[in-house]
């Protein structure tokens, strides 16, 4: 049908869709299938790495120290502890330990400081969860 033919079509024969256009090949995170439980650890690592690629721009280098074991929460989300050494703006180095919570479909919904164990004899406040390393300061 040419553009001239389309201009002659009566308005009553036009089909108007009220639905939003759908992009082929794109699936919203809330409708992606959940990852199998035996593959959740690798998936959580991937989701945390993806989170870092889009957030925390002041971290110019990061070295993984330790991954915790994945834990399923009562709400169905998954949580993993991640301990790493971060270099901030190519200067200061800090040791961080965070808890990342993700939906089964891979959307990171919460990031918070993990509770670092404190020594009984330590008078250090537990509110500061970051620790300076290798001569860096915070």
How many helices does DSSP assign? Answer: 2
Strand proportion: 25-35%
Count every beta strand, where a strand is a DSSP E run of 2 or more residues: 6
What are the secondary-structure elements, in order, as H or E?
A: HHEEEEEE
**End-to-end gap:** 68 Å
Mean pLDDT: 74
CATH class division of one domain: Alpha Beta
* Main beta sheet: 6 strands, antiparallel
Q: Please estimate the helix content.
A: 10-25%
CATH architecture heading of one domain: Roll
Low-pLDDT windows of residues: 9-14, 119-138
Shape field: globular
Going by helix content, strand content and strand pairing, the class is alpha+beta
- Under CATH, the topology of one domain can be stated as Nuclear Transport Factor 2, Chain: A
Using the CA coordinates, give the radius of gyration: 24 Å
List the helices and strands and how they pair.
Layout: H1 3-8, H2 40-54, E1 59-67, E2 71-72, E3 78-88, E4 92-102, E5 108-113, E6 131-132
Antiparallel strand pairs: 1-3, 2-3, 3-4, 4-5, 4-6
Task: Report a brief summary of the structure.
The chain is of the alpha+beta class and 138 residues long. The chain has helices spanning 3-8, 40-54; strands at 59-67, 71-72, 78-88, 92-102, 108-113, 131-132. The chain has a domain at 33-116 and 127-138: Nuclear Transport Factor 2, Chain: A, CATH 3.10.450.
